[in-house]
């Protein structure tokens, strides 16, 4: 079987449209990860801290 990676042209420029699409896709993935981190990790932990602090103050 022939190696398909040897057929890649090393000095060939990527079309600008394709380059922009890849960069936009990467930016969308990064944004999705940041939003998920915000709502699934940071927000619940912050709400949990407020609830714990409120309960501590009520017990004292």
What descriptive keywords fit this protein?
60 residues; mainly alpha; 1 helix; 0% strand
How would you summarize this macromolecular structure in one to three sentences?
The termini are far apart.
Describe this structure in words.
- The structure is a single chain.
- With 60 residues, this protein is mostly helical.
- The chain has one helix at 16-59.
Give me the secondary-structure topology.
Elements: H1 16-59
The termini sit apart by: 75 Å
Largest sheet: none
User: Count of helices?
Assistant: 1
Helix fraction by DSSP (H/I, runs of at least 4): over 70%
Q: Which series of helices and strands comes N to C? A: H
* Structural class determined from secondary elements: mainly alpha
CA radius of gyration: 24 Å
Q: How confident is the prediction overall: mean pLDDT?
A: 82
Regions with little confidence, pLDDT below 50 for 5+ residues: none
